[in-house]
Specification:
By secondary structure, this protein is of the alpha+beta class. It is built from three helices and two strands.
């Protein structure tokens, strides 16, 4: 199965089918917007050589923050 139509929940979430999740040895995925496409790639956080600055679960009770607020925070960190 290479293609599947999924619907968002009332909370705007989608579910990756178990068949696909079972093909990867991770529970972490990165989402990348490319023009009018959403690309979802499995990742292993332990393999990433970068620091995660914001994690919505860890830093904000599972809620995202507005883009302009994120930019202000990044600028502030850059100036420290």
């Amino acid at each position: 199965m290479n293609t599947k139509v999924v619907k968002t929940t009332v909370k705007g979430q989608i579910t990756l089918p178990k068949y696909w999740r079972d093909q990867f040895k991770t529970d972490d995925y990165i989402m990348i917007v490319k023009k009018e496409k959403l690309e979802i790639k499995p990742i292993r956080l332990s393999d990433i050589d970068e620091e995660i600055l914001f994690d919505s679960e860890r830093d904000n009770g599972g809620k995202g923050i507005p883009f302009d607020e994120m930019i202000k925070t990044l600028e502030k960190l850059q100036n420290e």
